Amino acid sequence: MSLIELVRLAFGRLRTSRLRAALTMLGVIIGVASVVALVGVGQGTTANITSRLAGLGTNLLTINPANGSAGMTLDDVAAIGKIDGVAAVAPELQTSATVAVGTKNTSTSVIGTNSSYAFVRAYNVWQGTFLNDASDDNNLRTVVLGSTVADNLGLDASAVGTQVTINGLPFQVIGITQPKGGSGFNDPDDQVMVPVGVVRKYFVAGDTVRTVGVSVASVDQMADVKASIEALLRDRHDLAATASDDFSILDQSQLLDTANSIAGTLALLLGGIASISLIVGGIGIMNIMLVSVRERTREIGIRKAVGARSRDILAQFLIEALTLSLIGGLIGIVIGLGASAGIARLGGWTFVVSPTIVALAVLFSLAVGVIFGVWPARQAARLDPISALRWE
Amino acid sequence: MDAPVIEIRDLTKVYRMGEVEVRALKGVNLLVQRGEFVAIMGPSGSGKSTLMNIVGCLDRPTAGSYLLDGIDVSRLDRDGRAEIRNAKIGFVFQSFNLLPRTRATENIELPLLYSDLGLSSAERNRRARASLARVGLAGREDHYPSQLSGGQQQRVAIARALVTDPAILLADEPTGNLDSHTSEEIMAIFQELNDAGKTVILITHDTDVASAASRQIHLRDGRIADLTGLAA
Questions:
Q1: Mean pLDDT of each 10-residue bin along chain B, 232 residues long
Q2: For residue B190, which phi and psi values (nearest 5 degrees)?
Q3: Burial A350-359 (b: 16+ CB within 10 A, else e)
Q4: What is the per-residue pLDDT for B231?
Q5: Cβ proximity of B145 and B100 under 8 Å
Q6: Spatial CA neighbour of A324 closest among A294, A283, A355, A296
Q7: Average pLDDT over residues A174-181
Q8: Percentage above 70 pLDDT, chain A
Q9: Residues B232, B227: Cα–Cα separation, whole Å
């Protein structure tokens, strides 16, 4: 029997038992849809993280204190700035505060830093100017607003030069940054930047900063500069040769790798869980095919009597199982892509249809059809025509 | 003279049921010439069904030889027998055995779907319609078995048996599920087909039905009781 005839036969059979076919497919639909959606979300997240990290700054090294240690002093920061290959260095002393103007107020992060921050962290000024050396040196109560904060306070370009209050203290707005975009848990535009000395004077006690951002002149120097900073800080912190670092230096690519591997593991895990439902769907197909073989024993007997070979019967039932799993798989792919598009919208990243996923999903559903269809089909093919014909 | 269409020599069939051996056929010799109309008769337990299954290539003998249309089919495997059934044998069953929810023509086309002839679907359909017309059911091509009477269903089954132009028509109690009037009609069709040259082998326990045949063979206890079985 030709393949076309077999497919026609399978479709005819599905038409005569629509509800049963639909319920059987549902298992595969759910399985394929969840695999496609979760892998899609995994890929979207990874792409999102990659683009966000790329937007964090050029050749960025981030220095953070190790657990339990105090952090870096501003003298450390100044010393790092003198290392060969360092293009710019910015201390980051972060606290949270309420920024208010008129009747509006918003709770946001206050970053105490210097004029290099915009370069190191890749911010562009939209209106006005960024912090400058004068404001750094003189600890002027000047502030640069992130775009989200400006929006929240209802401020536009005309706000440059006006005053806002931070925890009740008046500050002069000298600039507003361009939105970097990105959303979700960590909005890079939901912060205000003031000179680090001001933060220490009014908001945070102590003389250390938690984070130092370093921009390296060229990507080739990343490793060298990292080693130099490490040596410098160990020396300045008077660490014995055996002691471990009281700080850690993260570079961008490391962050990227870590984030990608976490996202990858997560996607694999979710995909793995989802594929369990694919197996359950396959068992559903096997179950219904076994019932079908039993119900149609007489039909099999008739077909064999008029000359169907074992392989004809095997092919008939296998194609029927494959039709169920493939149609289920295709519906599942559509639903899964729809779901991952929806999640991408919510998560704020661009949704991309990956042909690899679609191909894999088709392959998976075919595999489910073959794996779970072959046994019932063999049962059917092995039936003895004489007893099959006697079956009532 | 042509070679006989069926030539069976010393055919035995032994079923093993656990420890017990059941000898269903104990050395059967049978010759059927082309164009004959033979009735095989016998009470239940006589080996009639076993003989029919072997003649119909649904089963194979334990020993002995069976030439069908000149081909030794006694040692063929399952698929080999399936191909022989497809090409050489047209089955008509007591319970019609049409596929439900399948149109008359599609039922008749079924053997063509499994044949090696590689016919186009148009050609299959043409042959199925011709075959249906031959049993007097032209106009019922698109009817489903559930829309046909018992006699009509049996005619469709005969049309299906004829569609491959087989060497023999093998009918197993073809009138067993029909009333006497319809039975006569069905027997008349077999008679007509035989008159047109078809070899018909009829398995029945009904002497009235068997009387339509030109020769009757009686099976008893796994052997042919009547010496006419050896006539040739």
A1: 87 91 92 95 90 94 94 93 96 94 95 91 95 94 95 96 96 93 95 95 91 92 71 43
A2: -60, -40
A3: ebeeeeebbe
A4: 45
A5: yes
A6: A283
A7: 86
A8: 97
A9: 11
pLDDT of residue A182: 61
Q: Which residue has the tokens 């929240």?
A: A152
Q: Please tell me what DSSP assigns to residue A178.
A: P
Per-residue pLDDT of A221-244, as tens digits, reads 888 898 899 889 888 888 888 888
Closest CB from A299, A307, A385 relative to B114: A307
Residue whose C-alpha is closest to residue B91's, from B53, B142, B46: B53
Q: Does B76 touch chain A (CB under 8 A)?
A: no
Q: How far apart are CA A40 and CA A357, in angstroms?
A: 8
Neighbours of A237 (CB within 10 A): 16
SS3 at position B142: coil
Instruction: Tell me how far apart the alpha carbons of residues B137 and B159 are, in angstroms, rounded to a whole number.
Output: 9
Find, in chain B, the residue whose alpha carbon is nearest to that of A13.
B101
A41 and A340 in contact (C-beta within 8 Å)?
Answer: yes
Instruction: Give me the residue spans of the domains in chain A.
Output: 3-52+257-390, 70-245
**pTM greater than the 0.90 cutoff:** no
- Partners of B56 on chain A (C-beta within 8 Å) are 305
CA distances from A32 to A35, A341, A350, A363, A364 (A): 5, 15, 22, 11, 8
Tell me if chain A has a CB within 8 Å of the CB of B91: yes
8 Å CB contact of B83 and A312: no
Structure confidence at residue B229 (pLDDT): 45
Q: What percent of chain A has pLDDT over 90?
A: 39
Look at A305 and B97 and tell me if their CB atoms are within 8 Å: yes
Residue pairs spanning A and B at CB distance below 8 A: 54
Query: Which has the closest alpha carbon to B92: B213, B204, B217, B207?
Result: B204
Mark yes or no for CB contact B59/A386 under 8 Å: yes
Confidence at residue A40, expressed as pLDDT on a 0 to 100 scale: 84
- Say what the pLDDT of residue B97 is: 95
- Do residue B82 and residue A386 have CB atoms under 8 angstroms apart? no
CA distance A389 to chain B (A): 8
CATH superfamily of B6-230: P-loop containing nucleotide triphosphate hydrolases (3.40.50.300)
What is the ipTM for the molecules in this complex? 0.94
Give the one of A302, A311, A386 whose C-beta lies nearest to B97's C-beta.
Answer: A302
Bridge pairing between strands A247-251 and B168-172: unpaired
Contact B79 A311 (CB under 8 A): yes
Do residues A388 and A355 make contact, with C-beta atoms less than 8 angstroms apart?
no
Contact B114 A385 (CB under 8 A): no
- Per residue in A39-75, pLDDT (tens digit) is 888 888 777 777 777 666 668 888 888 877 778 888 8
Closest partner residue to A16 among B83, B101, B164, by Cβ? B101
The B residues from 126 to 165 touching A (CB cutoff 8 Å) are 160, 164
Any A CB within 8 A of B86 CB = yes
pLDDT of B1: 53
- What does the mean pLDDT of chain A come to? 88
